[in-house]
Amino acid sequence: MVDVLAAPQHVKTDSSLRTLTAISVAHWVSHFHLFVLPMLFPFLKAQLGVGYIELGFALTVFGLVSGLTQAPIGYLADHIGARKVLLIGLCVGGCALIGLGLHLSYPALIVSAAVLGLANSVYHPADYAILSAHMDVTRMGRAFSIHTFAGFVGGAVAPAIMLALVATVGGLGALIVAGAIGPLVALLMIAMSLPDASAADRRADGVQAPQQNVLTPAIMMLTIFFMLLGLSNAGINNFGVVALMSGYGVDLAAANFALTAFLGASAVGVLAGGFLADHTRRHGQVAAAAFGINAVIMLVIATVNLPSLLLTALMTSAGFLGGVIAPSRDMLVRNSAPPGAAGRAFGIVSTGFNFSGILAPLLFGWIMDQNLPHWVFGASVAFMVLTVLLALVTDRKPQGKSEIPDSRLVHS
Predict the structure, then answer these.
(1) Domain 1-208 shares a fold with domain 212-412
(2) Which residue among 40, 214, 270, 277 is least enclosed by CB atoms within 10 Å?
(3) Does 1-208 carry CATH code 1.20.1250.20?
(4) Domain ranges, ordered by start, for the chain
């Protein structure tokens, strides 16, 4: 990490490293909190006496609120400061889980999911605003990759942490402890003197980005691409454990281990994908190839009852390939964004993930309620095939545009 942020001035290096560390820890929390409720589905189902579609509805509420509030939160960060917005988001998200742990009921679950969705909308606008303002522009891409990696790690360790918490303090205690991490990290941000970033900070060089139309066909196509990516992963992330337990005869510990391996390999794949993305401009073909192999792996899992060891090995391979896609996915967005409009472009295409967050819980919850656990993986295969086709189409879209974005990437 020190090499990533190497700078001529020692003080500047220390400041950049501290800022990146603080923002990466916050991103770790955001992804960890994403998995708290899904990892507790078996506990919540038993305690609340509801079906998986009711539990899935809570995740739909989360996705809906997060999708509707992400853009307004971005404007808020520009006006009152990204640091303040980030600190508030950490505390609000933590309190949502603590409150649910103190008063568990289905209405409280829905309220908690809504508040968590609001908190989740904070991280990307605030994180990227602060990083953009305080990282060396020549190393911005590598700083972003570390930020992304930290988020993947947060999701990767969530199943193991939640399993350990349930075993030691019970389901309600697990909610409270998981929630307390948010305010504690907010205090850590303050102790680390996390710098702020406002619109004025990011225009300190006097350069005003031109206002351009970013609702281009390429950007809209990428929004659908992001939605399909989200749908293909959501069933595995949120319902993989319960699907493996009910349809494959896998116990809770083995199912959680397989999902942890899947998510952990995704984190490693992000770093590997960064090197791959730097050595090719055919990012759509990279994404298509990785997801094509993933579709074959998931088809095997969907149709064959495998021994736990082989199942975990295939889940690990699929997770790694899914992580490899992330940098190429982001390169596609950058290459399609008009000059000076990368932020708005990423904001628009990221709503594809929000759409998938709304649709996926209901779809996969319905699949589980129909006692079709193998179709959690089967539906993922279908979405992966669609993603492969769209990636190949999208890769051809930018061919006629200016090469400015690519040259900009070479120096980042």
Answers:
(1) yes
(2) 214
(3) yes
(4) 1-208, 212-412
Q: Look up residue 390 and give its amino acid.
A: L
Q: Which of 245, 182, 217, 198 is nearest to 31 (CA)?
A: 182
What confidence tens digit (pLDDT) does each residue in 322-359 have?
Answer: 888 887 777 777 677 665 555 566 667 777 887 887 78
Residue 342 near residue 334 (C-beta atoms within 8 A): yes
- Report whether pLDDT(403) > 70: no
* Tokens 């000059």 -> residue: 339
Q: How many Å apart are CA 295 and CA 388, to the nearest integer? A: 9
State which amino acid sits at residue 161.
I
Among 385, 409, 25, 362, smallest CA distance to 184 is for 25
Domain 212-412 belongs in CATH node 1.20.1250.20: yes
Closest of 281, 354, 362, 412 to residue 62, by C-alpha: 354
pTM: 0.69
270-312 pLDDT, tens digit per residue, is 888 777 777 777 778 888 898 899 999 999 988 888 888 898 9
